[in-house]
Amino acid sequence: MLALVAALLLIEGMHTAELLWLALLTAAAAIATVAPPGHRVAHLGRAAEVLVVALAASTTDDNFLVFLPVPVIGAVLAGGQRAAAVLLGAAAVVLVVSGASEGVLSDRGYLGTCLQWLVLAGAGAYQAAVLQRVLLARRTDETPQPYVEATRLLTQLRSVARQLPGATLDPGGLAEHLLDEVRAMVPSSRGAVLSGSGGGRLVVLAQAGVERLDWETALDTESSVADAWATQQPVVSGRSQARSVAPSRDISSMVVPLIAGVRTVGLIVLESDSAGAYPPPVLARVTGLTGAAALRLEAALLFDEVRSLATTEERQRLAREIHDGVAQELVMVGYGIDNAVAALPDATAAEEELRILRAEVTRVITELRLSLFELRSEVDRYGGLTAAIADYARTVGASAGLRVHLSLDETTARLPAAVEAELLRIAQEAITNARKHAGAENLWVTCAVDPPFAQVEISDDGSGIGENRPDGRYGLAIMAERAERIRGRLEITPRVPNGTTVAVVLGTAPRAR
């Protein structure tokens, strides 16, 4: 608009006075533009624009009125509709007063031009206000508050989950079903379904073949697995995608990405011990299954992640409440008992009772601290399942005076995060039972993880599980529920010559197909 005013003035021949007014208007416009919206300096800049335009129009050239809608509409866009009305009123007053002093108020041309631009500025301000309200309403509708949106999505998820059969939200079950379906369609000697786990690695959800394999799960290596994940395109190769398979000329491998929308959810890996086993027609048949399978797998993985996040947050909340509430109060009770013992040096009977009570309070505080440690224990993304179980066993063993014997065997491949969390909780429950109720002196912890297979075994040399054990069957029922949730098997057997062995096994022994 400044350029338009300057052009109009040049066409009619710009004079020194008009050039001065144009410079003042440029300075005022610069102040109003540079100042933060809504700031007092911005308001002063717009008022200066209106004042300069009105004075210049009445004293030199009415072409300056072309710029009048700019400060008025700018005030509306900054959220000041009342300020825009004030600016219009001020412009009208200055035009009238200045026009009267200059003797041009009786000129109908001057009055018509002033009225025309005042009306145009007012109409522009009104349209800007209407447009602003519409855009704000649309933006509010499209981007609701995060918690409102989260509530809506979780409600939908709950409704959908209730309508689906139980196994359809289990990533491992879906992966096994997909692998069986694909292997029934095309020839293969072995295969696997991989999914992302973060940290630049994949996890093995399911595999099939004569023996378990150490599949390539790193995404920063030169492999068909990494290429298919990065390009979202199927890759056929003459090399095996398992590190434990010896190189051979008679191997064909096919890696097909599972894509949901624009996101890669997982990969199907198939291998055959014959060259050229996966020509384009075979590849096309497999890719035809991946669309629907990817959507089902993504839904299951998201549901698993939401459930895991909710469980973790609840455990942390409980840990904070116990630490800040009951634990602190028990510590204060212990201090009170210590003070009472110090104040009763001659009351032997009372002193003995208080010492017994103090020992019991100390025991309860120790139990609470171990419970807090259990609640806060999680499988680290980089440490792995065996590291988390070993850390818990060492801590509990040191607290209870148990000798802990560890046997750990974990491959570089990882289980899904939700499965690792459930296995950790089962191990914690078994270790806690051995510490609290078995009266054991030794604890043996054995972990073998070779995804999708895993076995965690906890043994003690205590009194064994009897009908009248204080823990009853509640702890065993919890472990059984957790094992069933990840499609594992819980095995509880007596240990020879004494004690108990609790084992959870995930997956089955390799079998020929």
Automatic annotation (TrEMBL):
UniProt key word Signal: no
Coiled-coil residue spans: none
Molecular functions per Gene Ontology: kinase activity
Domain Histidine kinase/HSP90-like ATPase intervals: 418-510
Keywords: Kinase, Transferase, Two-component regulatory system
InterPro entries noted in UniProt: GAF, GAF-like_dom_sf, HATPase_C_sf, HATPase_dom, Sensor_HK_TwoCompSys, Sig_transdc_His_kin_sub3_dim/P
Domain of life of the organism encoding this protein: Bacteria
Name assigned to this protein: GAF domain-containing sensor histidine kinase
